[in-house]
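Amino acid transporter structure dump, as promised
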Amino acid sequence: MTGFNNDHEKMDEKKVDEENGLHAVNSQRRASFSDAVFGEITEEGPNYRAVGWKGTTVLMLKTQIGLGVLSIPQVFHSLGLVPGVICLLIIAVMTSWSNYIVGVFKIRHPDVYGIDDVGRKLFGRIGYEFFGITFALYWIFVAGSGMLGIATALNALSSHGACTAVFVAVATIVGFSLGSIQTLGRISWLAWIGVVSILVAILTLTVSVGVQERPAAAPITPGPWKSDYAITQKPKPAEAFAALSSLVFAYAGTPAFFNIVSEMREPRHYTRALILCQSIMTAVYIAIGVVVYYFCGSYVASPALGSAGKMMKKVCYGLALPGLIVSTTLFVHFAAKYFFMRILRGSQHLTRNTKTHWITWIGCTAGNSLVAYIVASAIPVFGGLVSLVGALLGTLMCMQPMGCMWLYDHWREARTPKWMFMVGWCAFMITAGWFLTIAGTYGSIVGIMDSYKASGGSAAWTCADNSNSS
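C-alpha coordinates r here:
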Protein backbone atom coordinates (compact mmCIF):
# COMPACT_ATOMS: atom_id res chain seq x y z
CA MET A 1 0.00 0.00 0.00
CA THR A 2 2.85 2.36 0.84
CA GLY A 3 4.46 1.74 -2.53
CA PHE A 4 1.16 2.44 -4.26
CA ASN A 5 0.82 5.78 -2.41
CA ASN A 6 4.36 6.78 -3.35
CA ASP A 7 3.74 5.95 -7.00
CA HIS A 8 0.51 7.93 -6.85
CA GLU A 9 2.29 10.97 -5.39
CA LYS A 10 4.95 10.77 -8.10
CA MET A 11 2.28 10.66 -10.78
CA ASP A 12 0.57 13.72 -9.27
CA GLU A 13 3.87 15.61 -9.18
CA LYS A 14 4.57 14.69 -12.79
CA LYS A 15 1.10 15.88 -13.79
CA VAL A 16 1.65 19.26 -12.08
CA ASP A 17 5.01 19.64 -13.83
CA GLU A 18 3.49 18.89 -17.21
CA GLU A 19 0.74 21.44 -16.62
CA ASN A 20 3.40 24.05 -15.89
CA GLY A 21 5.42 23.18 -19.00
CA LEU A 22 8.14 21.65 -16.82
CA HIS A 23 9.50 18.13 -17.43
CA ALA A 24 12.05 16.55 -15.10
CA VAL A 25 15.12 15.24 -16.88
CA ASN A 26 16.53 13.33 -13.92
CA SER A 27 15.88 12.73 -10.24
CA GLN A 28 17.81 15.85 -9.30
CA ARG A 29 15.09 18.24 -10.39
CA ARG A 30 16.95 21.43 -9.58
CA ALA A 31 20.09 20.20 -11.30
CA SER A 32 18.50 19.75 -14.73
CA PHE A 33 15.00 20.16 -16.11
CA SER A 34 13.32 21.18 -19.34
CA ASP A 35 10.94 24.10 -19.67
CA ALA A 36 8.51 24.78 -22.52
CA VAL A 37 9.95 28.30 -22.90
CA PHE A 38 13.59 28.18 -21.81
CA GLY A 39 14.45 24.63 -22.87
CA GLU A 40 16.87 22.65 -20.71
CA ILE A 41 17.87 24.44 -17.51
CA THR A 42 20.96 23.15 -15.70
CA GLU A 43 23.39 24.27 -13.02
CA GLU A 44 25.67 25.54 -15.79
CA GLY A 45 23.49 28.60 -16.29
CA PRO A 46 20.82 30.81 -14.68
CA ASN A 47 17.66 29.18 -13.29
CA TYR A 48 14.77 31.02 -14.94
CA ARG A 49 12.15 29.09 -12.92
CA ALA A 50 13.01 30.15 -9.36
CA VAL A 51 10.35 32.67 -8.27
CA GLY A 52 7.99 31.58 -5.47
CA TRP A 53 4.49 32.98 -4.97
CA LYS A 54 5.65 35.47 -2.31
CA GLY A 55 8.40 36.66 -4.62
CA THR A 56 5.78 36.89 -7.37
CA THR A 57 3.59 39.10 -5.17
CA VAL A 58 6.39 41.53 -4.38
CA LEU A 59 7.55 41.65 -8.03
CA MET A 60 3.98 42.48 -9.07
CA LEU A 61 3.75 45.17 -6.39
CA LYS A 62 7.07 46.75 -7.28
CA THR A 63 6.26 46.65 -11.00
CA GLN A 64 3.18 48.78 -10.29
CA ILE A 65 3.57 50.67 -6.98
CA GLY A 66 6.16 53.30 -7.72
CA LEU A 67 5.84 55.97 -10.35
CA GLY A 68 2.09 55.62 -10.79
CA VAL A 69 1.11 56.26 -7.17
CA LEU A 70 3.05 59.54 -7.19
CA SER A 71 0.67 60.98 -9.80
CA ILE A 72 -2.66 59.88 -8.23
CA PRO A 73 -3.20 62.98 -6.02
CA GLN A 74 -2.80 65.13 -9.13
CA VAL A 75 -5.34 62.90 -10.92
CA PHE A 76 -7.84 63.46 -8.11
CA HIS A 77 -7.28 67.20 -8.49
CA SER A 78 -8.04 66.97 -12.21
CA LEU A 79 -11.17 64.82 -11.86
CA GLY A 80 -12.40 65.71 -8.39
CA LEU A 81 -12.21 63.52 -5.28
CA VAL A 82 -15.30 61.35 -5.80
CA PRO A 83 -15.04 60.90 -9.59
CA GLY A 84 -11.33 60.22 -9.13
CA VAL A 85 -11.94 57.38 -6.67
CA ILE A 86 -14.70 55.92 -8.86
CA CYS A 87 -12.49 55.99 -11.96
CA LEU A 88 -9.63 54.42 -10.01
CA LEU A 89 -11.88 51.53 -8.87
CA ILE A 90 -13.15 50.97 -12.43
CA ILE A 91 -9.59 50.84 -13.78
CA ALA A 92 -8.65 48.50 -10.91
CA VAL A 93 -11.42 46.04 -11.81
CA MET A 94 -10.59 46.11 -15.52
CA THR A 95 -6.86 45.61 -15.06
CA SER A 96 -7.35 42.95 -12.34
CA TRP A 97 -9.38 40.88 -14.78
CA SER A 98 -6.71 41.37 -17.43
CA ASN A 99 -4.04 40.24 -14.98
CA TYR A 100 -6.07 37.15 -14.10
CA ILE A 101 -6.40 36.22 -17.78
CA VAL A 102 -2.61 36.37 -18.10
CA GLY A 103 -2.24 33.55 -15.57
CA VAL A 104 -5.05 31.48 -17.08
CA PHE A 105 -3.62 31.84 -20.58
CA LYS A 106 -0.15 30.83 -19.38
CA ILE A 107 -1.50 27.62 -17.83
CA ARG A 108 -3.37 26.78 -21.04
CA HIS A 109 -0.37 27.64 -23.23
CA PRO A 110 2.90 26.79 -21.40
CA ASP A 111 4.99 27.82 -24.40
CA VAL A 112 3.98 31.49 -23.97
CA TYR A 113 6.67 33.67 -22.38
CA GLY A 114 5.69 37.21 -23.32
CA ILE A 115 2.85 39.13 -24.88
CA ASP A 116 4.59 38.81 -28.25
CA ASP A 117 3.96 35.05 -28.07
CA VAL A 118 0.29 35.84 -27.40
CA GLY A 119 0.27 38.05 -30.48
CA ARG A 120 1.59 35.18 -32.59
CA LYS A 121 -1.20 32.84 -31.39
CA LEU A 122 -3.91 35.43 -31.92
CA PHE A 123 -2.82 37.20 -35.12
CA GLY A 124 0.13 35.30 -36.57
CA ARG A 125 3.45 36.94 -37.49
CA ILE A 126 1.93 40.43 -37.65
CA GLY A 127 0.62 40.08 -34.09
CA TYR A 128 3.97 38.72 -32.93
CA GLU A 129 5.87 41.70 -34.30
CA PHE A 130 3.31 44.33 -33.26
CA PHE A 131 2.90 43.19 -29.66
CA GLY A 132 6.61 42.53 -29.28
CA ILE A 133 7.66 45.98 -30.45
CA THR A 134 4.91 47.65 -28.40
CA PHE A 135 5.99 45.71 -25.29
CA ALA A 136 9.60 46.73 -25.71
CA LEU A 137 8.75 50.39 -26.36
CA TYR A 138 6.42 50.44 -23.36
CA TRP A 139 9.06 49.28 -20.88
CA ILE A 140 11.74 51.48 -22.42
CA PHE A 141 9.48 54.52 -21.98
CA VAL A 142 8.57 53.44 -18.44
CA ALA A 143 12.27 53.00 -17.67
CA GLY A 144 12.71 56.58 -18.87
CA SER A 145 10.01 57.66 -16.42
CA GLY A 146 11.85 55.80 -13.68
CA MET A 147 15.12 57.54 -14.53
CA LEU A 148 13.31 60.87 -14.44
CA GLY A 149 11.92 59.97 -11.01
CA ILE A 150 15.40 59.13 -9.73
CA ALA A 151 16.73 62.43 -11.10
CA THR A 152 13.93 64.27 -9.32
CA ALA A 153 14.84 62.53 -6.05
CA LEU A 154 18.53 63.38 -6.44
CA ASN A 155 17.63 67.01 -7.16
CA ALA A 156 15.51 67.16 -4.02
CA LEU A 157 18.13 65.50 -1.80
CA SER A 158 21.01 67.64 -3.06
CA SER A 159 19.05 70.91 -3.33
CA HIS A 160 19.77 70.80 -7.06
CA GLY A 161 23.45 70.07 -6.53
CA ALA A 162 24.04 69.27 -10.20
CA CYS A 163 22.47 69.63 -13.62
CA THR A 164 19.31 67.51 -13.97
CA ALA A 165 20.73 66.00 -17.17
CA VAL A 166 23.65 64.70 -15.09
CA PHE A 167 21.28 63.10 -12.58
CA VAL A 168 19.38 61.42 -15.41
CA ALA A 169 22.69 60.01 -16.65
CA VAL A 170 23.49 58.71 -13.15
CA ALA A 171 20.04 57.07 -13.01
CA THR A 172 20.74 55.44 -16.37
CA ILE A 173 23.99 53.91 -15.14
CA VAL A 174 22.30 52.57 -11.99
CA GLY A 175 19.37 51.17 -13.96
CA PHE A 176 21.70 49.46 -16.41
CA SER A 177 23.89 47.96 -13.68
CA LEU A 178 21.08 46.46 -11.58
CA GLY A 179 18.87 45.68 -14.57
CA SER A 180 21.61 43.39 -15.86
CA ILE A 181 20.88 40.84 -13.09
CA GLN A 182 19.90 37.80 -15.14
CA THR A 183 16.74 36.42 -13.53
CA LEU A 184 13.66 37.72 -11.72
CA GLY A 185 14.35 35.21 -8.96
CA ARG A 186 17.54 37.10 -8.13
CA ILE A 187 15.87 40.49 -8.46
CA SER A 188 12.96 39.58 -6.14
CA TRP A 189 14.99 40.36 -3.01
CA LEU A 190 15.59 43.86 -4.38
CA ALA A 191 11.84 44.14 -4.98
CA TRP A 192 11.21 43.63 -1.26
CA ILE A 193 13.48 46.58 -0.50
CA GLY A 194 11.81 48.65 -3.19
CA VAL A 195 8.25 47.97 -2.00
CA VAL A 196 9.08 48.78 1.63
CA SER A 197 10.95 51.91 0.54
CA ILE A 198 8.17 53.41 -1.56
CA LEU A 199 5.43 52.50 0.94
CA VAL A 200 7.32 54.08 3.84
CA ALA A 201 7.95 57.20 1.73
CA ILE A 202 4.32 57.72 0.71
CA LEU A 203 3.04 56.94 4.22
CA THR A 204 5.49 59.52 5.59
CA LEU A 205 4.20 61.99 3.01
CA THR A 206 0.61 61.23 4.01
CA VAL A 207 1.31 61.92 7.68
CA SER A 208 3.32 65.04 6.85
CA VAL A 209 0.64 66.72 4.75
CA GLY A 210 -1.86 66.01 7.53
CA VAL A 211 0.11 67.85 10.19
CA GLN A 212 1.66 70.68 8.15
CA GLU A 213 0.21 74.18 8.20
CA ARG A 214 0.05 74.51 4.41
CA PRO A 215 1.42 72.72 1.32
CA ALA A 216 4.87 73.71 0.11
CA ALA A 217 3.49 75.35 -3.05
CA ALA A 218 0.65 77.23 -1.32
CA PRO A 219 1.00 81.05 -1.08
CA ILE A 220 1.84 82.62 2.26
CA THR A 221 -1.34 84.34 3.48
CA PRO A 222 -2.47 85.73 6.84
CA GLY A 223 -4.37 83.32 9.06
CA PRO A 224 -4.78 79.56 8.79
CA TRP A 225 -4.68 77.99 5.36
CA LYS A 226 -7.70 76.04 4.13
CA SER A 227 -7.42 73.34 1.49
CA ASP A 228 -9.24 74.03 -1.77
CA TYR A 229 -9.84 70.37 -2.58
CA ALA A 230 -12.93 69.71 -4.71
CA ILE A 231 -15.42 66.85 -4.44
CA THR A 232 -16.10 67.18 -8.17
CA GLN A 233 -14.37 69.06 -10.97
CA LYS A 234 -15.16 70.11 -14.51
CA PRO A 235 -11.95 69.26 -16.34
CA LYS A 236 -11.39 69.96 -20.00
CA PRO A 237 -11.64 66.80 -22.12
CA ALA A 238 -7.89 66.67 -22.73
CA GLU A 239 -7.19 67.04 -19.01
CA ALA A 240 -9.71 64.32 -18.10
CA PHE A 241 -8.30 61.90 -20.67
CA ALA A 242 -4.74 62.52 -19.43
CA ALA A 243 -5.88 61.87 -15.85
CA LEU A 244 -7.47 58.55 -16.86
CA SER A 245 -4.25 57.61 -18.62
CA SER A 246 -2.31 58.24 -15.42
CA LEU A 247 -4.65 55.86 -13.57
CA VAL A 248 -4.09 53.21 -16.24
CA PHE A 249 -0.35 53.72 -15.82
CA ALA A 250 -0.68 53.13 -12.06
CA TYR A 251 -2.06 49.64 -12.83
CA ALA A 252 -0.13 48.99 -16.03
CA GLY A 253 2.21 46.26 -14.85
CA THR A 254 0.10 43.72 -16.78
CA PRO A 255 2.48 43.09 -19.71
CA ALA A 256 5.28 42.18 -17.27
CA PHE A 257 3.06 39.60 -15.57
CA PHE A 258 3.63 37.25 -18.52
CA ASN A 259 7.36 37.31 -17.74
CA ILE A 260 6.78 36.94 -14.01
CA VAL A 261 4.45 33.93 -14.25
CA SER A 262 6.82 32.31 -16.76
CA GLU A 263 9.63 32.46 -14.19
CA MET A 264 7.53 31.09 -11.30
CA ARG A 265 8.34 27.70 -9.85
CA GLU A 266 4.61 26.92 -9.69
CA PRO A 267 2.52 29.05 -12.11
CA ARG A 268 -0.67 27.60 -10.57
CA HIS A 269 -0.01 29.84 -7.52
CA TYR A 270 -0.18 32.94 -9.72
CA THR A 271 -3.79 33.87 -8.86
CA ARG A 272 -3.03 33.79 -5.14
CA ALA A 273 -0.23 36.29 -5.61
CA LEU A 274 -2.36 38.43 -7.93
CA ILE A 275 -5.26 38.81 -5.47
CA LEU A 276 -2.90 39.89 -2.71
CA CYS A 277 -1.09 42.33 -4.99
CA GLN A 278 -4.19 44.04 -6.39
CA SER A 279 -5.83 44.33 -2.96
CA ILE A 280 -2.79 45.99 -1.40
CA MET A 281 -2.30 48.29 -4.39
CA THR A 282 -5.86 49.54 -4.55
CA ALA A 283 -6.04 50.19 -0.80
CA VAL A 284 -2.75 52.12 -0.90
CA TYR A 285 -3.72 54.12 -3.98
CA ILE A 286 -7.05 55.24 -2.54
CA ALA A 287 -5.66 56.05 0.91
CA ILE A 288 -2.67 58.01 -0.38
CA GLY A 289 -4.56 59.78 -3.14
CA VAL A 290 -7.47 60.87 -0.96
CA VAL A 291 -5.43 62.04 2.04
CA VAL A 292 -2.76 63.91 0.08
CA TYR A 293 -5.28 65.64 -2.19
CA TYR A 294 -7.60 66.44 0.74
CA PHE A 295 -4.85 68.30 2.58
CA CYS A 296 -3.02 69.83 -0.41
CA GLY A 297 -5.83 70.63 -2.83
CA SER A 298 -4.72 72.35 -6.00
CA TYR A 299 -1.21 72.78 -4.58
CA VAL A 300 -0.35 69.10 -4.76
CA ALA A 301 2.98 68.47 -6.48
CA SER A 302 3.70 65.98 -9.26
CA PRO A 303 5.45 63.76 -8.24
CA ALA A 304 3.47 63.99 -5.00
CA LEU A 305 6.51 63.56 -2.72
CA GLY A 306 7.29 67.27 -3.10
CA SER A 307 4.01 68.36 -1.47
CA ALA A 308 5.11 68.47 2.18
CA GLY A 309 7.67 71.27 2.33
CA LYS A 310 11.42 71.46 1.70
CA MET A 311 12.59 69.39 4.65
CA MET A 312 9.97 66.66 4.33
CA LYS A 313 10.52 66.59 0.58
CA LYS A 314 14.12 65.60 1.25
CA VAL A 315 13.01 62.98 3.78
CA CYS A 316 10.33 61.52 1.49
CA TYR A 317 12.58 61.38 -1.55
CA GLY A 318 15.38 59.89 0.54
CA LEU A 319 13.05 57.12 1.68
CA ALA A 320 11.65 56.62 -1.83
CA LEU A 321 14.98 56.59 -3.69
CA PRO A 322 15.66 52.83 -3.23
CA GLY A 323 12.12 52.13 -4.46
CA LEU A 324 12.58 54.31 -7.53
CA ILE A 325 15.88 52.60 -8.28
CA VAL A 326 14.32 49.12 -8.03
CA SER A 327 11.43 50.19 -10.27
CA THR A 328 13.85 51.38 -12.93
CA THR A 329 15.84 48.15 -12.50
CA LEU A 330 12.75 46.06 -13.29
CA PHE A 331 11.73 48.22 -16.24
CA VAL A 332 15.17 47.96 -17.85
CA HIS A 333 15.20 44.22 -17.16
CA PHE A 334 11.80 43.58 -18.78
CA ALA A 335 12.69 45.45 -21.96
CA ALA A 336 16.10 43.80 -22.21
CA LYS A 337 14.68 40.32 -21.55
CA TYR A 338 12.34 40.69 -24.53
CA PHE A 339 15.21 41.25 -26.96
CA PHE A 340 17.39 38.69 -25.22
CA MET A 341 14.73 35.97 -25.48
CA ARG A 342 14.03 36.86 -29.08
CA ILE A 343 17.71 36.57 -30.03
CA LEU A 344 18.68 33.43 -28.08
CA ARG A 345 15.43 31.51 -27.64
CA GLY A 346 15.90 27.94 -28.83
CA SER A 347 19.68 28.26 -28.56
CA GLN A 348 21.92 26.53 -26.01
CA HIS A 349 23.29 29.98 -25.13
CA LEU A 350 19.98 30.97 -23.51
CA THR A 351 20.57 28.90 -20.37
CA ARG A 352 24.38 28.59 -20.44
CA ASN A 353 26.90 31.12 -19.13
CA THR A 354 28.67 31.32 -22.48
CA LYS A 355 30.43 34.30 -24.05
CA THR A 356 27.54 34.69 -26.51
CA HIS A 357 25.06 34.63 -23.61
CA TRP A 358 26.74 37.47 -21.73
CA ILE A 359 27.55 39.63 -24.75
CA THR A 360 23.91 39.42 -25.88
CA TRP A 361 22.49 40.07 -22.42
CA ILE A 362 24.72 43.05 -21.59
CA GLY A 363 24.16 44.43 -25.07
CA CYS A 364 20.39 44.29 -24.54
CA THR A 365 20.47 45.97 -21.12
CA ALA A 366 22.91 48.65 -22.29
CA GLY A 367 20.98 49.40 -25.47
CA ASN A 368 17.64 49.70 -23.71
CA SER A 369 19.12 51.84 -20.95
CA LEU A 370 20.54 54.22 -23.54
CA VAL A 371 17.21 54.62 -25.34
CA ALA A 372 15.40 55.11 -22.01
CA TYR A 373 17.93 57.83 -21.14
CA ILE A 374 17.12 59.64 -24.38
CA VAL A 375 13.39 59.43 -23.63
CA ALA A 376 13.83 60.77 -20.08
CA SER A 377 16.02 63.63 -21.30
CA ALA A 378 13.80 64.58 -24.24
CA ILE A 379 10.52 64.62 -22.25
CA PRO A 380 11.53 65.76 -18.74
CA VAL A 381 7.93 66.44 -17.60
CA PHE A 382 7.07 63.70 -15.08
CA GLY A 383 3.27 63.99 -15.13
CA GLY A 384 3.12 64.38 -18.89
CA LEU A 385 5.45 61.48 -19.56
CA VAL A 386 3.53 59.20 -17.16
CA SER A 387 0.17 59.95 -18.78
CA LEU A 388 1.60 59.65 -22.33
CA VAL A 389 3.14 56.24 -21.64
CA GLY A 390 -0.03 55.06 -19.89
CA ALA A 391 -2.23 56.13 -22.79
CA LEU A 392 -0.20 55.32 -25.87
CA LEU A 393 1.34 52.03 -24.76
CA GLY A 394 0.03 51.00 -21.33
CA THR A 395 -3.63 50.70 -22.26
CA LEU A 396 -2.75 48.81 -25.44
CA MET A 397 -0.85 46.25 -23.33
CA CYS A 398 -3.38 45.96 -20.49
CA MET A 399 -6.86 45.74 -21.99
CA GLN A 400 -7.33 44.94 -25.67
CA PRO A 401 -5.12 41.81 -25.83
CA MET A 402 -6.77 40.18 -22.80
CA GLY A 403 -10.23 40.46 -24.32
CA CYS A 404 -8.89 38.80 -27.46
CA MET A 405 -7.14 36.11 -25.38
CA TRP A 406 -10.37 35.02 -23.69
CA LEU A 407 -12.18 34.91 -27.03
CA TYR A 408 -9.32 32.88 -28.54
CA ASP A 409 -9.66 30.19 -25.86
CA HIS A 410 -13.47 30.11 -25.51
CA TRP A 411 -15.02 31.16 -28.84
CA ARG A 412 -16.08 27.64 -29.81
CA GLU A 413 -17.68 26.79 -26.46
CA ALA A 414 -21.44 26.35 -25.92
CA ARG A 415 -23.45 29.60 -26.14
CA THR A 416 -24.57 29.76 -22.50
CA PRO A 417 -25.66 32.96 -20.68
CA LYS A 418 -22.26 33.05 -18.98
CA TRP A 419 -20.53 32.75 -22.34
CA MET A 420 -22.60 35.60 -23.81
CA PHE A 421 -21.86 37.78 -20.77
CA MET A 422 -18.15 37.14 -21.13
CA VAL A 423 -18.24 37.91 -24.87
CA GLY A 424 -19.92 41.21 -24.03
CA TRP A 425 -17.32 41.90 -21.33
CA CYS A 426 -14.47 41.19 -23.75
CA ALA A 427 -16.05 43.50 -26.33
CA PHE A 428 -16.26 46.21 -23.66
CA MET A 429 -12.59 45.73 -22.68
CA ILE A 430 -11.45 45.97 -26.30
CA THR A 431 -13.63 49.01 -27.08
CA ALA A 432 -12.82 50.84 -23.84
CA GLY A 433 -9.14 50.09 -24.33
CA TRP A 434 -9.04 51.65 -27.78
CA PHE A 435 -11.01 54.67 -26.55
CA LEU A 436 -8.55 55.25 -23.69
CA THR A 437 -5.60 54.73 -26.02
CA ILE A 438 -6.73 57.34 -28.54
CA ALA A 439 -8.32 59.88 -26.16
CA GLY A 440 -5.60 59.52 -23.54
CA THR A 441 -2.78 59.99 -26.04
CA TYR A 442 -4.46 63.17 -27.29
CA GLY A 443 -4.86 64.50 -23.75
CA SER A 444 -1.29 63.67 -22.79
CA ILE A 445 0.21 65.35 -25.85
CA VAL A 446 -1.84 68.47 -25.20
CA GLY A 447 -0.64 68.48 -21.59
CA ILE A 448 3.02 68.15 -22.57
CA MET A 449 2.67 70.94 -25.15
CA ASP A 450 1.02 73.21 -22.57
CA SER A 451 3.88 72.48 -20.15
CA TYR A 452 6.46 73.51 -22.75
CA LYS A 453 4.52 76.70 -23.54
CA ALA A 454 4.08 77.67 -19.88
CA SER A 455 6.59 79.93 -18.19
CA GLY A 456 9.37 77.87 -16.65
CA GLY A 457 8.43 74.72 -18.54
CA SER A 458 11.11 72.06 -18.72
CA ALA A 459 13.14 71.82 -21.90
CA ALA A 460 14.85 68.80 -23.41
CA TRP A 461 18.20 67.91 -21.76
CA THR A 462 17.49 70.61 -19.19
CA CYS A 463 19.67 71.55 -16.25
CA ALA A 464 16.68 73.07 -14.40
CA ASP A 465 15.58 71.64 -11.04
CA ASN A 466 12.66 69.27 -11.71
CA SER A 467 11.90 68.58 -8.04
CA ASN A 468 9.79 71.73 -7.70
CA SER A 469 7.23 70.89 -10.41
CA SER A 470 3.56 70.93 -9.48
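Residues 51-219+227-453 form a domain with the Amino acid/polyamine transporter I fold (CATH 1.20.1740.10).
lmk if u need the other ones
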